[in-house]
Amino acid sequence: MPLRHEVTKKNKIEDQALCLGASVAIFQKMTSETASSFITSGPGFFRINCVCLFKISGRMTDKKICLLLLLTSFFCQSYSQTPDGRTVENIIALARLYGYIRYFHPSDEAAKINWEKFSQFGVDAVIDAKNDNDLLIRLRNLFYPIAPSLVLSSNDNPSVFDRKKLIPPDITGYKTIVWQYKGINLGNNNSAYTNVRTNRPDKQQASLSFAPFNQSLKGEGLAGKKIKLSGWMKVITENDNSGGHLWLRVDKEKGTGFFDNMAGRAATDTTWKKYEITGKIDDDAKNIYFGGFLSGAGQLFIDNIELMIMENGEWKSVQIKNGNFEDTKDNLPVDWNSTQNSSIYKYETSNETEFGKFCFKISSHTASDNPTPAQLIFNNYPVATEFVKKIISPKITAFIPISLYGNEFQTYPSADKSRFEELVKKINAISRQASGDMLNVRLADVIIAWNIFRHFFPYWEDTSKDAGTLLRETILKCFTDKTAIDFKYTLQLMTAALNDGHIRVSLSNDTSELYTAPLLLEYAENKLVVEKILDKKLESTIRKGDVITSINGIESENFIAEKEKYISGSPQWKRYRSKISMLAGTYNSTVELSNNGSQGIPIVRNFLVTGLYKEMTLRQKTGKIKEGIYYIDINAVPMDTINRLLPELENANAVIFDLRGYPKNNHEVINYLIKTSESDRWMFIPEIIYPDYQSVSFDSLGWNMKPKTPHFQGKIIFITDGSAISYAESYMGYIKDLHLATIIGQPTAGTNGNVNPFTLPGGYWISWTGMLVKNHDGSKHHLRGIIPDIFVNRTIQGIKEGKDEFFEKAIEFAEAEK
Question: What is the pTM of this model?
Fold first, then answer.
């Protein structure tokens, strides 16, 4: 886990003394009845007390020592920190087979399973299998009811699999059923990615998606205040993936602040109940968005939404529009924004309420509502009865059909109905209240996440570890994690190996790294340097340009390396991310810094990490900066501002565009730089029909830019660095590959393509890149980024003097003779 705090020797002694005293008191009173509650109080608590009790065993009776040994034996079996090879092989086999069946076996039974719960159920079912034969039996019991044509065998000879059994006696009325993936749609309403199970009603999309609605208000005057969103909901769920949610988000000038969407605690009751979200509005809040949504398949009824702000210790209502949904038009509530998808969800008002005449109702369509079978989304697909052979364990081979016959009623062959229903009943009995504190949830989450990456991640050739090693190491780490936050770091460590700058891992309601010391850091001359001091009280002990030599007693070089282990992406992106998160921790906690003059300076973390982004982007004001030279901050000004300057920019001697960061929806600038239309293809969406990212084809696309007038006549200069990612790199790709400007600065992040986030049981959220992106000439972009024509490095002296050396180099180039 990242280095977050330091435990002193004095603290360790005090902890041991406290532990010893508690252990004596507890154990002297322990009976066989209280022993059970002692164990279930938590594995970490039990482990500590067992150790302490052993230290004082000389003062205990033989009877108590025997009881202690029994309890210790129970603990070691239940919460083993070092699983044996058999246990790990069991989980690996489950993980591999899980992905093959979930994403590529097209049976009707598999399409009906709650795969999130199945992963937890599967972990419990196989984790203690004693040998290969025992594991084989358990896997068959798990998967045969949902994949009746699957063959699991200790013999890897294909002769054990008979393709003839996949063909109905009479194929009249049967069609071919296969999975096709254009990227993968994970239910985040990202239109770039699509998946279908051909010739089946397109109902499964509702189980993957969600139907939101919202309002917004300005954040001015509300910064720093507590906020509460409440509403009444009742829900009719079709499966355990569905539920009702309120959601509240604070948007800042740069990035997102507070956000809660009831992840992991969705409303599922069929009677009206009140639900709330409470949080704090960020100090630099710009807009506040709020509303609700139905996740998955089912029906959501929602009413009496109210927004409140705390002032002088009391909650006071904030005026919102039509919070009771009584004002309607065309059978819809007015003043609420909604994203309707008529093929999946229906929005309407309903009189099924107890609070007035109307409430808001969102419902998913059933198969009978949408009987049209899903059609092919690209031309490549598995042939009838095609199967894949996969080694899921050294002595277990899976023969998996990826193309089945199916009529309007059922895929062939159909499963044993009673066995399938019994399995579904057991799976659905798994609690929805999952937590990363639980070992089976951690292992289940790794299984889910690893399979998404294994089968759909487009950059495996650039990862630091192969898929098999990554799975094994992450499974092992799950056994040593003790808390949900520990597991967050395990997921970060796992995804860091993918080297994808779009990857983020977060945990709902986790506040462990929201705040930082009020310092803006920078890398210069291979050192960590203070660039800005954001609290004047620190100016007596820390100065701009100071080199940070250690953090919490750890040399800066080692501390940085440890931090960057948990960040995914290129080296330049890791550097950018690490300087933002370097000093992060909990609110009002303390971090100790040493600089080139002082040792162990304690600094309180009381500055929001997200506030650092704003400090980083305080640059030159857009407009004329010298006679004939103009500066445009691409991160700060929208296109309409640039359009007003066009008459001046057309005849300027030089225009400097600053793209350190993220554009403000102003890539239309490119149209004024190109002279001819272009149709380059540089984005590639994977078309997937086989597991393990094999035999992948691509659908290519680009922006298809066309020239506009006026055309700029003077020098064009772009400033960029490692903070430019994704959309910014699409922008810079045109500048570089079409030779539209001179680029000054550092390489961009080397990560581009539409982000494709997903959630995991326990409240975890992971984003990643779902498509392949190249340079316009077909060469590699990933990890390399856009390479500048003129490199600039920050210097310690420049930071001390408050210089923007990138900007100064751009001015120097603009003023130089052509």
Answer: 0.80
